[in-house]
Amino acid sequence: MRIALASDHAAIELKSQLREWLIEEGYEVADLGPDTADSVDYPDFGYKLASVVADGTAERGIALCGSGIGISISVNRNPLVRCALVSEPLSASLAREHNDANCIAIGARLTGLDMAKACVRAFLETDFAGGRHQRRVDKLSNPPSDSDRIEPLQ
């Protein structure tokens, strides 16, 4: 399985540690940057990660920033990608099992290396359950048309 990693400057160390660990675990890893701790804008790297997951270059993606929030928002701008912000293994597992998440986001300032590894392991080793969850996942990539939207409150 090919895993893409991307971060901002706040998560460069965690990204490096996860990259080495994933390689040791036998995964093919694409590190999308950044390569230094110089300040960068997380959306640039979130969009890059979403692109390679959406086009199939990578099967799964791991997005990292200080809190995990900003980069998860940018990754989720791509309608073919489902990125869940996780901080413990159960959320990572459920994101795969119920939501067919193809990316996870982790906050490097909030999650230690061992917990991040546990989240990544749960994410990579859990299969999508399909069944009743499939129609819901399909709706994530196909939002309702304007005629199906609820009118705003007056």
UniProtKB/TrEMBL annotation:
Pfam families, per the entry: LacAB_rpiB (PF02502)
InterPro entries for this protein: RpiB, RpiB_LacA_LacB, RpiB_LacA_LacB_sf
Molecular-function GO terms, alphabetical: ribose-5-phosphate isomerase activity
Region ranges (Disordered): 134-154
Enzyme Commission number, as recorded: 5.3.1.6
Keyword line: Isomerase
Family membership noted in the UniProt record: Belongs to the LacAB/RpiB family.
Classification via PANTHER family: DNA DAMAGE-REPAIR_TOLERATION PROTEIN DRT102 (PTHR30345:SF0), RIBOSE-5-PHOSPHATE ISOMERASE B (PTHR30345)
Protein name as annotated: Ribose 5-phosphate isomerase B
